[in-house]
UniProtKB/TrEMBL annotation:
It comes from the Eukaryota. Keywords: Signal. Residues 1-19 form the signal peptide. This is Fruit-body specific protein a.
Length: 496
């Protein structure tokens, strides 16, 4: 004779077990997930930060020529002004350490180009002039000053990664140029990653470079004949792992799925892609899937380069933020991250328009251990999905057995051999409630090896696993043990 408390527990168990209508009979989940509201672009934070950063620079009077171009840096992140590298930002905000993708030396601008054109002239030789103090300063060199050597300067620019503009000028009374550096030339050629105008001639020199001798007045540096030359017809390359969605236009995205923004010290699409790849996942939306890069021009002057990140792919239809106040949006481009997993959201299963399911369809295959069936199924039913109407289910759809099922894409994934990827999904083991789902478990398998997974009760949760590709890769998800079911949705396989 069981004790009264055990009897109660038994009754409770029977009641709860009886209450579960399995997914195959269109049962409703234990608890329907909250409606997700997708945040949209925080334009006011971007404008506010744009008014705080100072990214303008002239070629310094006290640095040697031909210093290596420093890597692109981040000058603000989510509204906080900073000065840090892309690698540091990405590493600090990853759920696991990702190796940064190799920088391609095609870089920000392709080699296709059609020569330089003059943007502005220098003042006549006798007059004091000023050099550019502008964004995206890269490095400088000195060219032979026997003549006003424009060609040597523009030729050199084509050898500097990212250079699209040079400012050529004489700098007088610079002790280092006159006596120390081996080139013995005062004709400076400063390289920039953006085109600047005469209005940005703001560096008049005025520095004390010569040593003090007795009580003689030390002559101060000054600048003459400062002209500007811009590279025509350069092409912005698409970052590895991305597709160009739109641009360049004068509109920045005002789109849902916004994850935050960074300012870059130059218009570097690769750097923005790396920030997107390294961005920590949004708990509701998942990993970064899209970025919008654009140049902020304030009062007619290039000021910063915005990299906005989104977990939903946007397009030109929402690129409608043209600026605010004195800030104008220019050179706006959108790039979507490519997933090598076709139909990772199971939206391709459309055999009905209300409720239906299957063990396989064109994009996915469900496998049950023989002789069982329906241990791995694909549903059309919005209440089961993380987004849209499709999702996959592991565990017997009719609660006939407690065997684990396997789902896998119909074709091996076409990847770049040797490259790092990340598998991202949302998984929910919540259908039959915390007690029944306590033993839920799913393994993410990559070429037969477990690379990640989930266990225990949870509503739709973001799950990711790092992998290395072989060129043709077998991905599968194995698990479920009815009534400890797991739903899977919104899977991506991105280059990391
Ligand atoms: C969620 O959104 C749908 C459609 O907008 C609405 O019908 C439903 O009432 C919302 N549910 C909750 C819990 O807010
Ligand atoms: C940013 O940091 C680097 C390295 O520490 C430094 O060389 C550079 O001058 C800094 N830039 C600004 C604008 O503070
Ligand atoms: C060239 O530069 C050197 C070093 O600054 C300077 O001494 C010399 O006067 C310059 N020559 C001309 C022609 O400007
Ligand atoms: C320094 O200046 C004073 C007057 O201003 C002058 O008499 C003196 O000769 C100067 N000394 C040197 C070393 O030039
Ligand atoms: C890290 O990522 C989260 C989620 O996207 C974001 O809220 C946070 O601001 C990020 N922090 C940094 C330093 O990037």
């Amino acid at each position: 004779m069981p004790s009264p408390s055990r009897l109660l527990a038994l009754v409770a168990l029977l009641v709860s077990a009886n209450a579960i209508i399995p997914p195959g009979h269109q049962g409703l989940p234990h608890q329907t997930p909250d409606n997700i509201t997708h945040p949209t672009t925080d334009n006011s934070a971007i404008v506010q930060a744009a008014n705080q950063v100072d990214q303008k620079q002239a070629a310094p009077a006290d640095a040697p020529p031909n210093v290596d171009v420093p890597p692109t840096s981040v000058t603000a992140i989510d509204g906080t002004i900073t000065n840090t590298t892309i690698a540091d930002v990405s590493a600090s905000n990853s759920t696991f350490r990702r190796e940064l993708g190799r920088r391609r030396n095609i870089g920000r601008f392709g080699k296709r180009q059609s020569g330089f054109e003059k943007v502005f002239d220098g003042l006549p030789a006798g007059q004091h002039d000023a050099s550019i103090e502008g964004t995206a300063y890269l490095t400088y060199t000195v060219v032979n000053n026997a003549t006003y050597n424009v060609k040597a300067c523009t030729d050199w620019c084509t050898t500097v990664k990212g250079c699209v503009f040079v400012n050529l000028y004489y700098e007088f009374n610079n002790q280092l140029l006159d006596f120390v550096f081996s080139e013995k030339s005062n004709l400076k050629c400063a390289a920039y990653g953006d085109v600047h105008a005469a209005a940005e001639k703001l560096n008049f020199g005025g520095q004390q470079s010569y040593d003090q001798v007795g009580n003689e007045t030390v002559p101060l540096t000054y600048i003459t004949q400062s002209s500007g030359w811009a590279l025509q017809g350069y092409v912005t390359d698409t970052p590895d792992g991305y597709d160009l969605v739109f641009g360049p236009t004068g509109g920045a995205n005002n789109a849902p799925g916004y994850m935050g923004f960074a300012f870059l010290d130059q218009y570097d699409v690769d750097a923005c892609a790396q920030l997107c790849n390294g961005r920590g996942a949004d708990p509701n939306g998942g990993g970064c899937a899209y970025f919008n890069i654009w140049r902020a021009v304030v009062d007619g002057v290039p000021t910063t380069y915005t990299c906005s990140m989104y977990y939903l792919v946007a397009d030109e239809s929402t690129a409608v933020n043209y600026g605010q106040g004195s800030l104008v949006v220019t050179l706006s481009r959108g790039y979507a991250r490519k997933t090598v997993l076709p139909d990772g959201g199971f939206e391709g299963y459309t055999a009905c328009d209300d409720f239906c399911f299957t063990t396989s369809y064109s994009n996915w295959i469900g496998v049950s251990p023989a002789p069982a069936d329906f241990d791995a199924t694909f549903f059309f039913f919005p209440p089961y999905a993380h987004s849209g109407h499709g999702s996959a289910l592991l565990g017997s759809a009719f609660d006939d057995d407690s065997l684990a099922g396997t789902i896998k894409p119909a074709q091996p994934l076409k990847t770049d051999a040797g490259a790092a990827y990340v598998v991202q999904c949302f998984m929910s083991s919540a259908f039959s409630g915390p007690a029944e789902e306590a033993s839920a478990k799913v393994d993410i398998m990559w070429n037969g090896e477990r690379v990640g997974g989930v266990s225990g009760f949870s509503e739709y949760t973001f799950v990711e696993a790092p992998v290395v590709a072989t060129g043709s890769d077998l991905l599968s998800f194995v698990g479920g043990s009815a009534p400890a079911w797991t739903f899977i949705d919104d899977c991506k396989v991105y280059k990391a």
